[in-house]
Design a protein that fits this description.
- The chain has no helices and 14 strands.
- It is mostly beta strands.
- A 6-stranded antiparallel beta sheet has the order 5-6-7-14-9-12, with no helix packed on it. It has a 5-stranded mixed beta sheet with strand order 1-8-13-10-11, with no helix packed on it. A 3-stranded antiparallel beta sheet has the order 2-3-4, with no helix packed on it.
Amino acid sequence: MQSIQQAPRQPVDASIDETNGTRSETGPSGELHSKQPIVDSAAIAWTEHPRFRAIGMKALLTSADNPLAGVNVVQVPPDGVIGRHLHVKEIETVYVLAGQSVLTLGHTDYPFAAGQVVAIPAGLEHALRNTGAETVELLCIFTPPLI
């Protein structure tokens, strides 16, 4: 069983422009960053999941964007596996955008396919295995956010 803990982010000062919703942040070194209110997932590069090899992910929203929820898109290739793990504090809500898989919650396996959603309670071990011929794509919402 793996417990996933993310390092806390450096604090930032943030403000919202009330006229257009643009978010400006001042980082720990005083640098100014400006973020648009709408995130285009196509503009974000896929990265390998830090714990699960060959699993792709994009962090769309973090605690810097929303202190109550984080949003990721995850890709699991055919025969790919997200191994057993749990989140100590976070509820993970997962919506399947594409593909078919088996979701293990505790010690029970469930078919989990496009159009289905689940809320995984904090502390519950879970895993996912792609059982289809196409890549499984997941929209994952963490409350509170992992990072």
